[in-house]
């Protein structure tokens, strides 16, 4: 009897321990699973994005020579930056580049998305053709277009000459080179943003258009009162990501097509940073410019969020 009582007490203690052991709720398990799935991505961002950004900001306060010497100079790199006419020129060129490129890319991508959304023969072929440049390296794209636009021997020059049209120096003129880069960039990137717009269009219920058609609304009225308001979140995403992408990317295209010329007319800020760091060895100065660009992007992102409220509807008129 005594052994039986002892066994019962041990069983009772084990049961009490089992009952008091904390268990995660369903929501807790979901959060844990989400955290485990996100951990590699967060770690990658911290190592390959966050850490280089911190290093860039710190290096902006130093003068760095090519032999690993570091001299703390405080804000001298930033003072030099705003007194550097080449930097100010590249900043002006970059602003002009973005002011033309972003609206042009936005309009062309939206127009293509509206086009391929329609049902007509070989629509899948058109979708693939518009997206095809995105699977080709920017270096290859730059080489192809440089060959096509080369003076006297370029394909475009020869075609225009066949029809008796004299061709200007597309990449050799300071007045035309930047616009050629803009045109090639739009041609390269439009397929990617077209697909994003197409995804946004497909999320709009067809019932809205059917009701509008019954009410007698035309194509323009349907676009103005249905398509455009419901595309605001997608438009916000494209404006934000395209600005960041075009400001920080595209150096391959510039390097291959124009190398910043002629007369620095295509020297965008990202190419100027590359020159200062890897051509002249001014790593501290290049880091200061990079930190300045990061600050501009942060201001742009916060301002865009504030103006559009994250792409949500702004007022009742929407």
Percent strand = under 5%
Radius of gyration: 28 Å
CATH architecture heading = Orthogonal Bundle
Which CATH class applies here?
Mainly Alpha
Instruction: Give a short account of the largest sheet.
Output: 2 strands, antiparallel
Q: Per CATH, what is the topology?
A: MetI-like fold
Q: In angstroms, what separates the terminal alpha carbons? A: 81 Å
| Tally of helical runs | 14
Instruction: Bin the helical content.
Output: over 70%
Look at the structure and give the mean pLDDT.
84
Largest sheet: spatial strand order:
1-2
What is the element string, with H for helices and E for strands?
A: HHEEHHHHHHHHHHHH
The coarse overall form would be: globular
At the fourth level of CATH, the homologous superfamily is: MetI-like
Which residues sit in consecutive blocks of at least 5 with pLDDT less than 50? 313-318
Structural class from helices and strands?
mainly alpha
Number of domains: 1
Number of strands: 2
């Amino acid at each position: 009897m005594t052994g039986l009582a002892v066994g019962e007490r041990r069983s009772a203690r084990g049961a009490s321990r089992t009952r008091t052991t904390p268990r995660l709720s369903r929501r807790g398990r979901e959060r844990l699973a989400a955290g485990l799935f996100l951990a590699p991505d967060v770690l990658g961002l911290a190592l390959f994005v966050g850490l280089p950004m911190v290093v860039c900001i710190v290096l902006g306060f130093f003068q760095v020579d090519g032999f690993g010497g570091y001299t703390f100079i405080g804000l001298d790199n930033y003072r030099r930056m705003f007194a550097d006419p080449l930097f100010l020129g590249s900043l002006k060129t970059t602003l002009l580049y973005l002011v033309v490129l972003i609206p042009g890319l936005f309009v062309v991508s939206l127009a293509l998305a509206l086009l391929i959304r329609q049902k007509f023969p070989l629509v899948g072929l058109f979708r693939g053709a518009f997206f095809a440049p995105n699977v080709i390296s920017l270096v290859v794209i730059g080489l192809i277009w440089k060959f096509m636009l080369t003076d006297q021997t370029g394909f475009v020059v020869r075609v225009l000459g066949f029809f008796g049209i004299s061709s200007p120096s597309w990449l050799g003129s300071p007045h035309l080179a930047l616009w050629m880069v803009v045109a090639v960039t739009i041609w390269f990137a439009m397929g990617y943003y077209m697909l994003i717009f197409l995804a946004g269009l497909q999320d709009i219920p067809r019932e809205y258009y059917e009701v509008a058609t019954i009410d007698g609304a035309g194509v323009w009225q349907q676009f103005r009162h249905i398509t455009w308001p419901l595309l605001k979140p997608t438009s916000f995403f494209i404006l934000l990501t395209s600005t960041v992408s075009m400001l920080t990317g595209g150096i391959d295209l510039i390097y291959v097509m124009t190398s910043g010329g002629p007369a620095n007319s295509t020297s965008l800020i990202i190419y100027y940073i590359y020159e200062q760091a890897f051509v002249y060895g001014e790593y501290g100065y290049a880091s200061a410019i990079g930190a300045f660009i990061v600050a501009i992007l942060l201001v742009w992102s916060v301002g865009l969020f504030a103006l559009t409220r994250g792409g949500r509807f702004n007022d009742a008129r929407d």
